Amino acid sequence: MSAATILEAIPMPWDEGLLHEALAAIAEAYGYSRYAIFTIPSPDDVRAELKLILGNWEPEFQKAYEKLGLLRYTPVIRAVKAGPTPFVWDIESLHPSDAPDEPNPAARLLEAHGIRGGVFVPVHGMASFTGALALSGTRTELSPNETTELQFASFGAFGILAACRLEENRRSNPLTPRERDCLKLAMLGKTSSEIGIILSLSEYTVSQYLAAATKKMNASNRTHAVAIAAQMGYLS
């Protein structure tokens, strides 16, 4: 059964429990044991670190993975930010040892948890939103047809996740009405000066609102804040 077929079989109304079940089925169908959905840092995010937002990773494995800095591992970050092409990897090529008798710590961790390879399937969408569906396990190769199937599935999974979280996010919106107004206008390309004229505020006050919103979104700048707020449904 293809990944798309598994997602299409999720009954309405959607919820994250059903999405977990579908992703587990997709991982198994393609020969993997673990699945995860990550957000990818924006091009101007100096922290450049993947953020795990959903998956079946054990807490112990996730903690060790983070401790080794693998969420900000440059080859993976570069691959998923480069475009929508799935990045298929195997442990030898992604985490080579510096010496035959000194196993790479990352490789040692992955092998200890039964992982020999996997795939990151990026999603580059509207409003600078980027993310990736990641599958991992003992499999190290995928056919072209399988990578295409997983590309479609990745978009579907992100769409379902967004739908599940949209109403919840709206209810928990941390932005004030003025911060939301300023971000909406910034999303339209307006400068602080132009936003001030539209909202009858000083340019300084607009900048303060945007700075506060950027901090609340844990964003690196206002463009990044707009992308996160739009993705979370805070601006609708």
3D structure, described in words:
With 236 residues, the protein is α+β, with helices and mostly antiparallel strands. 52% of the residues lie in helices and 13% in strands. It has helices at residues 3-8, 16-29, 59-67, 74-82, 91-94, 105-112, 144-171, 177-187, 192-199, 203-216, 222-232, and strands at 34-39, 51-55, 87-90, 117-124, 130-137. The mean pLDDT is 89. The longest helix is centred in the last third of the chain and has 28 residues, at 144-171. Helix 8 packs across helix 11, helix 9 packs across helix 10 (203-216) and helix 10 packs across helix 11. Strand 4 (117-124) and strand 5 form a beta hairpin. The chain has two domains: 3-169, Beta-Lactamase, CATH 3.30.450.80; 173-232, Winged helix-like DNA-binding domain superfamily/Winged helix DNA-binding domain (Arc Repressor Mutant, subunit A), CATH 1.10.10. The chain is built from eleven helices and five strands; from the N terminus they run H-H-E-E-H-H-E-H-H-E-E-H-H-H-H-H. The protein has a five-stranded antiparallel sheet, sandwiched between helices.
